[in-house]
Each structure stands twice: as structure tokens, then as C-alpha cells.
Amino acid sequence: MLSSNMGKKLNKYVKDYVVFDLETTGTSCISDEVVEISAIKVKDSKEIEEFSTLVNPQMPIPFSATDVHGITDKMVANAPTFDKALADFIEFAGDMILVGHNIHTFDMKFICRDAMKYFGKTIGNDYIDTLPLARIYLPQLGHHTLTDLAYYYGISISGAHRALHDCRMNQQIFEKLAEEIKNPSEDAKKVKKCPRCGSPLKLRSGRFGEFWGCTSYPACKYTKDAGTGPIYVE
After folding, report:
1. Long-range CB contacts (within 8 A, 24+) of 107-110
2. Are residues 121 and 115 in contact, defined by beta-carbon separation less than 8 angstroms?
């Protein structure tokens, strides 16, 4: 849903949502472009509809990006440009809550940037990022990538790094995280959460000693003195 204001980041489980994923030419939301967008519509925790399209980025796809997702220039030559693909995605998602892995610092930046570029408005849907949720409710894991979580839950990673496959993997992980949220472990209960964005805080060292910093940095720059000192928020 296009809006004058970007949607809010939520930290909870919902039964109705649209999980989405992008593949891109690189990691910069300034200079890179989308080459694939996929989504799955979920109601009452069950998939009911899918959306997926390759995208012509109107620039060469670097080999380093193709090496990750397998999408080549030839594959996208006759694909729609992102103004058309994004408009179709917006119609597909409607006003439903969006879900994705690491979307707070990556995917949302791309679609909000291009919504503003093509339509003069941003994406107003509220959204849930499963990465900080996994960090909060599975603190015992050393890493929280989508494939790490799939391995942990015994979910197949076949087809990983193509957008629709990652959507299906993420949807299963989100449903598993629902149980973690409902019945958090003792370790999860001890995790300090950022009061600004809800992501877990991590103890770090700086010039003036130890401090708690938000793990969503640089998207969120909240910090708090590890002792009894003041809270610093940039």
C-alpha cells in the first residue's frame, strides 16, 4: 500500500501476512537494482497465493551477484522493469503486513526507494523482520541467516537464494518462531531489547567503555551505557 509514511516495524507473530524476498545486483540500495521479487500470501498461517517475477534491472548483473542467486543477464532480458513489477507486488500485497528476513536493513530499503522513485510515495505496510526475532528467541545459535535457521528447524534449503524458494523457507521459519515467541526459553527471556526498534541489544566496547548497542545498527543507532550512566541515542 503506497503511503506518505513508511510502515512500522513490528516484533510479533501474526497469522495473516505476505512474506517477500528480493534478489538484486548487489547490496547497495543506492547503486544496485532488483532482479527478482517474489512473495507468498498467507492467511490463518497457510499459504494461499504466490507472486514471482524476474526483473530487468537495466544494467549488467555482476558475476558476484549471479554467483549467489544464479540469475543472468540473459534470463532477465525480456523481464519487466521494476516499475511494473513493483506495482504488481503492491497490488498483490494490498495492506497486509509484510514479513521477510533482514528486510529492515535490506529489502524494505529497496522497495521504499523505488516506490518513491516511480510513484512518489513510500510503502505504508507494517512489517516484521524475522532476523531480529531469531536473535531474540534463539540466542543460543551462533548465526541467524535464513539457511542457519532452516538447518536448525530441519527445513529444506533446496533452491536457496532464489526469491520464491527463500519466501517458502522463511514462511516455515516464521511459523516455527511463533512457537518460540509463545513459549520463550530462559535464555530468550534474558535478552535485552532495544526500546526503539525491538531488536536485541549487544554488549560492545567503545572509547568510553562498554555499552549496549542495537544489533540493527546502522538502521537503528540506539545505545545505552552498560553501567548506570546516561542513555545515548543518535
Report:
1. 107/20, 107/21, 107/22, 108/6, 109/29, 110/22, 110/24, 110/29, 110/32, 110/34
2. yes
List phi, psi (to 5°) of 187. Answer: -65, -40
Q: Where are the alpha helices (DSSP H) in the chain?
A: 63-69, 73-76, 82-93, 107-119, 130-137, 146-153, 163-182, 186-189
Global pTM? 0.87
DSSP-derived secondary structure for 6-56? PPPEE-S--SSEEEEEEEESSS-TTT--EEEEEEEEEETTEEEEEEEEE--
> How many whole angstroms separate alpha carbon 204 and alpha carbon 47?
40
CATH of domain 2-182: 3.30.420.10
To the query of whether residue 144 is one of the catalytic residues in this protein, the response is: no
> What string of pLDDT tens digits covers the 234 residues of the chain?
899 999 999 989 999 999 999 999 999 999 999 999 999 999 999 999 999 999 999 999 999 999 999 999 999 999 999 999 999 999 999 999 999 999 999 999 999 999 999 999 999 999 999 999 999 999 999 899 999 999 999 999 988 889 999 999 999 999 999 999 999 999 898 888 888 888 888 888 877 788 888 887 877 888 888 874 444 443
CATH 3.30.420.10 range(s) for the chain read 2-182
Positive or negative, the CA dihedral 168, 67, 131, 186 is positive
Candidates 104, 143, 144, 161; catalytic one: 161
